[in-house]
Amino acid sequence: MEKLKEIVLKYKNIIAVLLTIFVAIGINVTFNKELNALKLDSSAYNIFYIIAIIGVFLLIYYSFKIRDKRLWICSIILGLIFAICLTIGDICNVYKDTLLPSSKKFALYLLIKIITYFILFSSIIAIILKKLPEIVEKWNKENKEYKYFTTNKKSFWIIFGVFLISYIPFFLYYYPGSFQYDAINALDQIVGNIPYKDHQPIIYTVFLGLFWNFGKVVFNNGNIGIALCTIVQMISTALVLSYLIYYMAKKNVPTKYRIITFVFLLINPIIPMYTVRIEKSIYFALLLTLVTIQIIEMMTNKDEYFKKKIHYVTLPIEILIMSLLRNNGIYITILLFIILLILNRKYWKNILLLLLTPIIIFYIIKGPVWNALNIIPEDAREALSVPVQQFARIIKYERDSLSDEEYNEIHKYLNMTDEEIIEKYVPTLSDNIKANINEEAFANDKIGLIKLYFDLAIKYPGQTISSFLINNYGYYAPNNDIVYGVQMYNEESILVCSSFNSPDNDLKNIKLLESKIIENINQHFLQKDIPVISMISTSLGLYFWILLFGLVYIIYAKKYRLINAYIPMFLLWATTIVGPLVEIRYVYALILFAIPLLGITAFYKENDSIN
Asked: Contact at 8 Å (CB) between 565 and 594?
């Protein structure tokens, strides 16, 4: 190893040139599936390309000057992860609707791409990790507080007001709110069109019903009730985001970084759009943000945190409501409980009380309480996106090589013909197949379905991996070219509202504000056709990368106990990659909290504490 190090240092200029040449070629390598050949994109060679390659050389050259073994280990690991994620994104964007090539040349193409991205990312990360401690120290030393941007209550309410005002144009544009089919399903339960079913969280259905009925009783108009519900959600979002900025000030995050965070949360168009979205996931994201703040405080100020009795009320309530809003909330809580218990054995009694209590109450509500109220349990199919996508893909591409037993087993669990499966299979969305699961067969033989999945995975590893990656790659690949979860104000909005079946249905979208800006946001910013801005707005993979970078940085900086701060958000990500599709609402909390979390942990000092 020392000999290799000496050679690299001696010939670093030559190596930097060779790596630059490799990157220059690797960036422009393309694969032609029809010809099974690697080609170079000749259209890329222009003056801007030459400037970019000079920049690559300087990047590699300066990274070679870094003599920090620990830093390079962190940079190499993270650079490799980023390279693999971006390569998966490239491949899935091109081949998501067809078979992936299986030739050796395609494998060579993948290797070239991974190495190219790896060289770039590991160099960039190494330089950032080298400079970041200096920036942290400088910003902490030169920190300047502003009268209306500090830890006082006046600052909190001013920031709250600014956030709230910024949501008003979107409220008027989408009045009484941006409706989704899940909300219509909840309203159908409220007016008695369908029985109460836990597919839509009962707690949110009741919450929405309170506003709907209030509007009907007081104003004889359900639309007004829904508008009030949207206003409450706007206020809730503004309060949580203002508290987030306030908490960053309490943790001594420099004013510069707090201002950057504030501006990002203010101008990111997805936030006001989701603030007026009638949907359970908004409150779930807000509660997960509050829970994560409590976990940070628990781990950075343990003795004081566990002494305050209020935490034994607020944290269990936040966790319980969060878990009742989305099922992955309880999975996050259980895993968080186990991890915190292992890492903080000294405080095991406190952790038991704080996290086990809401878990127990959750299952009491979901079991005896819901049974007593005759609420229909949630379908088992909701957790089966991964296996059903594998079944569908294998039927589409490997039907002739299936044994009779395998073929019959697949159709035992899917109430669909081969033709229906092929027609309805969408690689990036499992709902079409999931809706046709034979629930009785699954209930009678759950182990059989799991066994079938793994048997087919062994026999068809390529199709199994493809079905999994294509269904979730947007959660870790920033270059994902598909966006789900952007509500357009058009016939879709009218169709959603009109699907609500009520004798005196007065639910309707009424555009109270004509706004070209919001229309442009809908049509361009959030449809990924504006470079950089679209990525910042909707690239879920980007926020995952921010989480990864923050985690690697605190490991490099040896702030090990702050690893606990990242656990809730990583658990959120882990529970969504097995979901039905890549959609903004499922990881909306990442958009709200990834950048603040990076700041809190990067600028944290051991002697910091909250008053």
From this structure: no
CA 260, distance to chain mean position in Å, is: 21
Helix intervals (H) in 414-502: 418-424, 431-434, 439-444, 446-459, 461-472, 491-498
The torsion region of residue 528 among left (phi > 0), alpha (psi -120 to 50) and beta comes to left
Among the listed residues 483, 476, 461, the one whose alpha carbon sits nearest the alpha carbon of residue 88: 476
Confidence grade of residue 443 (pLDDT, cut at 50, 70, 90): confident
Helices assigned H by DSSP within 142-221: 153-174, 181-190, 202-219
Query: What is residue 48's predicted lDDT score, i.e. its pLDDT?
Result: 77
Q: What is the pLDDT of residues 535-565, one digit of tens each?
A: 778 889 999 999 999 999 999 999 888 998 9
**pLDDT at residue 230 tops 60:** yes
3-state secondary structure 344-404: CHHHHHHHHHHHHHHHHHHHHHHHHHHHHCCCECCCHHHHCHHHHHHHHHHHHHHHHHCCH
Assign 513 to helix, strand or coil: coil
Q: In one letter, which amino acid is 465?
A: I
- Amino acid letter, 431: D
> Model confidence over 355-394: pLDDT tens digits?
999 999 999 999 899 889 888 887 767 778 899 999 999 9
- Measure the N-to-C terminal CA separation of the chain; round to a whole number of Å: 50
Q: How many residues does the chain have?
A: 611
H-helix segments, 251-356 = 255-267, 270-275, 280-300, 302-307, 311-325, 327-343, 348-351
pTM of the entire predicted model: 0.91
Q: Give CA–CA dist 600/258, Å, rounded.
A: 10
Residues 6+ apart with CB under 8 A from 116: 22, 23, 26, 27, 29, 83
Q: 37-40 and 29-32 as β-strands: parallel, antiparallel, unpaired?
A: antiparallel
Q: Which residues of 195-226 are buried (b: 16+ CB within 10 A; e: fewer)?
A: ebbbbbbbbbbebbbebbebbbeeeeebbbbb
Residues 6+ positions from 611 with CB-CB distance below 8 Å: 250
Residue 158, pLDDT > 70, answer yes
At 587, which amino acid appears?
V
Mean pLDDT of the chain: 88
What is the identity of the amino acid at 104?
K
- For residue 478, whether the previous peptide bond is cis, meaning omega lies within 30 degrees of 0, is no
What is the per-residue pLDDT for 602? 92
Beta-bridge partners for 29: 40
Residue 603's φ and ψ, nearest 5 degrees, are: -95, 0
- CA 363, 369, 375 angle in degrees (round to 5)? 105
Is residue 160 packed enough to be buried (19+ CB in 10 Å), middle (13-18) or exposed (0-12)?
buried
Distance CA 160, CA 236 (A): 10
**Integer Cα distance of 60 and 53 in angstroms:** 11
